[in-house]
Amino acid sequence: SQKLSGVVEDCQCDYKTVDTINEEVLFPALQSLVKKPFFRYFKVKLWCDCPFWPDDGMCHLRDCSVCECPENEFPETFKRPSGQLSPADPKCQEGKPQATVDRTLDNQAFHGWTEADNPWTYDNETDNAEMTYVNLVLNPERYTGYIGASAHRIWDTIYKMNCFKDAHKDVCTERRILYKLISGLHSSISVHIASDYLLDESTNHWGPNYTLLHERVVQYPDRVKNLYFVYLFVLRAVNKASAFLAQAEYSTGNTIEDATTQLLIKDLVTSQRLLNLCPVPFDEAQLRSVDGGELKSHIQEHFRKISALMDCVGCEKCRLWGKLQTLGLGTALKILFSEETSPHSLNLQRNEVIALINLLSRLSESLKFVNDSLLQNKVKGLGSRDM
């Protein structure tokens, strides 16, 4: 099967090396990390008004719904003292137990973490009254039945924004990079839909849809290239924040799991194999041109609009993963645009770290699925079509 070769454009590593570090280092490490309590529970504002057009309503397929955290799984300090469920809480459509949490206890449960709004995203992550906690393990990113005009309008709007005009022509590096980030993220989401697809709704049979993988991603080399690019971009952000991540406290009240999480994070950010093979996945100096201050504000403004579009996603589960991954990408931009490198000067909040690591895990899974599908001849090799 035909695969990509050479150095990933605008990056410092070649495709073969990326495949190696993903297979040997990142994929197994991230698979373990995202299942730990600290990275499993994500704070998100799910019920939102679309700021761009009237809400189309939620899709009705069962697998579009999001289940809030089961009470017996959520950290004790997050539960309501009374233990009573509010009758206003929506009933879970997937048969999981309801959960209700005290959203004001964020800092008490995770000692040492600050609450700060991410300037790159539309939501105010400090507004606990509007947030709910979701168990990501119980709500996997996969096909939900969210298709048609409503779904296409989200991506069409993103690509038609002024920031991406003439993206293939001689535009500034910052704009080209942002375009590739969004394209790569779009590719990753498409891969996850294809990798876990509802093949037969009548029998609830799920499995990989290789035809969809080829039609949506693999037949377009630029989409695969941009998937590699966003992977290395986010990896560089994790690399740059390594000192902060290594010394942060991952406390959820589960002593054994928290200690394991701390060790897994430390092993990930200090991996000698990773540092030897790809010491600088992406050079963020490309983001700082002469008028970098103005361009940063310009890119930030457009990324906030992209983040705001997640409130227009009609499928609740798609909205959950859209918000998590845009926050993760916004956190990567925040880190790489920052001049701060010491663990004490870099200001990341708990939800940003959760989103960043989960995003890297999503991208890692996407790369592995694409490569495994090509190696096993499950999908046709990369074609010659442009994006």
Automatic annotation (TrEMBL):
Cofactor: FAD
Protein location: Endoplasmic reticulum membrane
Keywords, ordered alphabetically: Disulfide bond, Electron transport, Endoplasmic reticulum, FAD, Flavoprotein, Glycoprotein, Membrane, Oxidoreductase, Redox-active center, Signal, Transport
GO cellular component labels: endoplasmic reticulum membrane
Disulfide bridge positions per record: C59-C64, C315-C318
GO biological process: protein folding in endoplasmic reticulum
Keyword Transport applies: yes
Top-rank lineage group of the source organism: Eukaryota
Topology class, membrane: Peripheral membrane protein
Catalytic center residues: C315, C318
Keyword Transport in record: yes
Gene Ontology terms for molecular function: FAD binding; protein-disulfide reductase activity; thiol oxidase activity
Residues where FAD binds: R142, T144, W155, S183, H186, R216
Subunit structure: May function both as a monomer and a homodimer.
Family to which the UniProt record says this protein belongs: Belongs to the EROs family.
The protein's name: Endoplasmic reticulum oxidoreductin 1
